[in-house]
Amino acid sequence: MTTPISMDQLLELAKQAGDAIMEVYNSDDFGIEQKADDSPLTKADLASHQIIVEALERLTPEIPVLSEESAKIPFRPARAGTATG
């Protein structure tokens, strides 16, 4: 069974991630790096990613998180009664 998440929790999470992004954008150092595919990766990307992933893992530990900035997640077979795509 999936843990329910309230809209207030999601809004707070989005605000925290947005605050982290703005903190970087208001600084003199965006910390821009190039990813393997030659696209940019900034400190803001990493900061917001960390906040979002940590919160989602805490709020819904049974659901794996996949994002552009994350490493590959381990394969877990779908449970009976769940959508597999």
From TrEMBL:
Its EC number is 3.1.3.7. It is an enzyme of class 3 (hydrolase). InterPro entries: Inositol_monophosphatase-like. Gene3D superfamilies: Fructose-1,6-Bisphosphatase, subunit A, domain 1. Mg(2+) binds at E68. Keywords: Hydrolase, Magnesium, Metal-binding. Its cofactor is Mg(2+). One of its GO terms (molecular function) is 3'(2'),5'-bisphosphate nucleotidase activity. This is 3'(2'),5'-bisphosphate nucleotidase. It comes from endosymbiont of Riftia pachyptila (vent Ph05). The lineage of its organism: Bacteria, Pseudomonadati, Pseudomonadota, Gammaproteobacteria, sulfur-oxidizing symbionts.
